[in-house]
Amino acid sequence: MKNDVFNIIKQNYNDMSKGHKKIADYLLENYQKASFMTAASLGQTVGVSESTVVRFATELGYDGYPDFQEKLRSIMKTCLTSMQRVEVASNQMKNEDIYEKVMSLDIERIRDTIESGDRVAFAGAVDAIISARKIYIVASRSAAALAEFLNYYFSIIFEDVRLLKNLGTSDLLQQLFRVQKGDVVIGISFPRYSKQTNVAMKHASESGATVIAITDNDSSPIAEGATHVLTAGSDMVSFADSLVAPLSLINSIVVAVSLKKENEINQNFEKLESLWDEFDVYEKSDR
Hints:
Elements: H1 5-12, H2 18-34, H3 39-46, H4 50-59, H5 65-79, H6 82-93, H7 98-116, H8 119-130, E1 135-139, H9 144-157, E2 161-165, H10 169-176, E3 184-188, H11 195-206, E4 210-215, E5 228-231, E6 235-237, E7 240-242, H12 244-260, H13 262-278
Helix pairs in contact: 3-4, 7-12, 8-12, 9-12, 10-11
């Protein structure tokens, strides 16, 4: 990406002051650690003041250091290996109460998702899902767990829902080759982005289907060409992805769809409850 943090730093490097060059040098060599540093700690590490770090960010065109740090983290999430993620988490959470720290980060991601959520895109996606001829759900790797959740509830609501997860590219395209106008393809992908999901979304878009991207930002590979883009904050916790906010977003979709199809759902559950009782699916309550 021509306008990512690193290219902007390199393009402006020759015109930087001595202090700004020290910050730039450190960032280019240690961006994994720097992305989690406050302006004060970054300044202390490289030997400049906190205000110098803030000016560094604004002179590069960012709205202060938090904006710069967010862009740096966004780039970093897509390129770190699992081993590097473990190292970053170790540095970030050393001497922390892990239980509280991880949950606090999840709460923060949900709050950010609420504040930045596109209500128009959300409503458009819900309407498209309700009127779809067929619904395909595509995800890979850790995002497959989110797809399983969505598929479980959509299979109760809709007659024709197809879950495509953790497939090779050829198998994925084979299962999507009949996709057409009137169908909805929901792709779920978060850093590190899956190439297979991106290929599937591109094929669905070119085939005339309505494409719904559930991802972390508008610059995500699966957002390109999508009819509706729904974003949720994600983060790294060691080598594991924090997908609490994406799950909450997907849960919101399920609830919104169910409220618009209440009559059909009641009929479906009436039949299901009878089957569950007949085959003793759930534990009976003594109350």
